[in-house]
């Protein structure tokens, strides 16, 4: 099997706990690697509650007909030789690497995602970089829509933004027809990995009491309409609040969120982007906006739907921003940071 820590440091620093002579720092409990492995399990439901992994690496290997749930942030995940399993992975600070797995249903939150030699697997993803597949067949992908208590805190621990999700930008090293496709847009995570386990971080009955933390985007699928609107919100103390308000209002108006991103622009890119937007598409002072765009990360929201520009313009928050139908502007901003 492909699992094992090898020479990789276990956790955030220092030698692996199973190496001779290792002593944990004073006041820190020694970690047992067995607490961070599920190996050769069959027909079991296994759950790691928030705080039980706490940023460590985790290995899943040789599991069959299992329901595997990690409700915690983690350093890295390797999944090998699993068959007919339902697997949930909370925010992963580096990579989820799944190899030689068959007929699995997965919901992952990760910075990097990679498969090798997997078949007939479904994935709902949050992925902060471009997902990569290799020598794999009949994989299906969708955008994550799962919620559990603590996921926002765990995302903050990994310093990943919910606005940066490239789940649909699949890079296939071994391109061939039938290697991968998209899940039906109506697919829900809780149905994909059902049945949900009994866990303190899940709401009773499986129905969240609040809106999902993650943003459900349409991604690279063929959009439902030929009309689009791109809204660029510059950095500022009320940036997040403006984005959340507009998200709620646009969804209520029946518009489809296609892409989001959150990235800092350099001077040349900011100038180019501003140049693509027409004068009436820049709200407020163009000079003030241009200066703001290079100070910190901006949030871009790309929408689709009939009459979407008219709807977006009617719901714009106050202050400097860009609201444009320019595919050049949206395309320029959409893929920034996709390679990490």
UniProtKB/TrEMBL annotation:
Annotated ranges, domain C-CAP/cofactor C-like: 24-175
Gene Ontology BP term (one): post-Golgi vesicle-mediated transport
Listed Gly residues bias regions: 1-14
Segments for region (Disordered): 1-26
A cellular-component GO term for this protein: periciliary membrane compartment
Keywords, in A-Z order: Nucleotide-binding
Protein name per the record: C-CAP/cofactor C-like domain-containing protein
